[in-house]
Amino acid sequence: MSHPHSPALPAALLPDELLALASDQERQEMGHYRRLAFGFLPFGRGISRLMATLGIECERRLGDIHRQARDLAAGASASESSAGPDRAGRAGSGKTICLITGRGQALAVLKHAEAWAEYAVRVAMHLQEVNATPCLQPLLLGLLAQKQAERHILAELVTAYDGQEAEDARLASRDWPRGWLAGARRLPGQPSG
């Protein structure tokens, strides 16, 4: 599915182009979630930890993308993978960080994060649709499943904060489950349970 106002996009992308787009998207999201994790610290550590976890998941997916690029020896993406962690650490470093201090501000930022997650799902769907390389299919399907899980978690969080009877302290300090993405994909080398 393409945006109605976008020019015609190619029916298929080369593997290195596809991996470069996925890498750039993950890098942007990682920076976004890291800024949110820092921004939510004054409001609630539970939400801050959730955003940090989302950023860590982006970093893991970025590593998977770089490994796949290395395995395919995909030209520019393979040489970029050696510089991946450094570039990833600087992602969005020029963006401002807004410290969240109140419920209204938190709800607005969470709704924006939910919209960002919806966009990420659409990007992942598009990458999966334009993929013409069978060996990238598992990576892209896993990426899509995790993006859908992120969107679902953020939608639940927005719903919890949008209610009139919700208590800020209870919601903000809630410890979100560590394995919330376990249903989407098991991470290699992670102990189960």
UniProtKB/TrEMBL annotation:
Region described as Disordered: spans on this chain: 73-92
Report the superkingdom from the record.
Answer: Bacteria
Q: Where is the composition biased (Low complexity)?
A: 73-84
What is this protein identified as?
DUF892 family protein
